[in-house]
Amino acid sequence: MTHATPRKTPNILIRALNVLVSGGIFAMTGVLILQVFCRYALGASLSWSEELSRYIMIWAAMLGAVALLSDADFVSFRWLVNLLGQRANRVVSVFMTLVSVSFLALLTYVGGGLALYNMAQLSPALYLPIGWVYAALPVGALLMALRLVWRLFHTTEAKKHHHSI
Fold it and tell me: Which residue among 61, 152, 153, 165 is least packed, with the fewest CB closer than 10 Å?
């Protein structure tokens, strides 16, 4: 029986997120194709398809942002930081990670409050609690913050290990 090591765990989670996001985009595309077919071939629109595709897109965007963050694919000024020395580069990197985690913690807190506040409101076509749609923000922000913290400690640990050899 194999167990996921702490280093492998984020990779497994990121793969799971990639599958969820890909599945969501695939489902959204299918729903939109079905909507177009029903509208133009059958002459009757589906009342729920646009709403569902919008909600899937919101969740896919937030979960996709976590995957992008894990691959370090967000826009950054790496070239500017690389002009600094190695030590200054590390200090700037840690500082920016802490600022990002602080902002994401704020998004998690405020977004969680908004999601809870809107649980009683139902969506017009699907009759889903709107709070579940709003929950994409705190869930995505929390996962991004956790990923940044993991990366910060993982790279710090790797540097310590490298210097001790």
Answer: 165
The DSSP call for residue 123 is P
> CA-to-CA distance for 155 and 98, rounded, in angstroms?
14
Distance separating alpha carbons of residues 26 and 29, to the nearest angstrom:
5
What residue segments make up the domains of the chain, in order of their start? Answer: 8-160
Alpha-helical regions (H) of 41-135: 49-70, 78-82, 86-117, 130-134
This prediction's pTM: 0.82
Query: What average pLDDT values come out for the chain (165 residues) when binned by 10 residues?
Result: 52 89 97 96 94 97 88 62 76 88 97 98 96 97 93 69 49
Contacts of residues 84-91 at CB distance under 8 Å and 24 or more positions apart, as own/partner, are 90/159
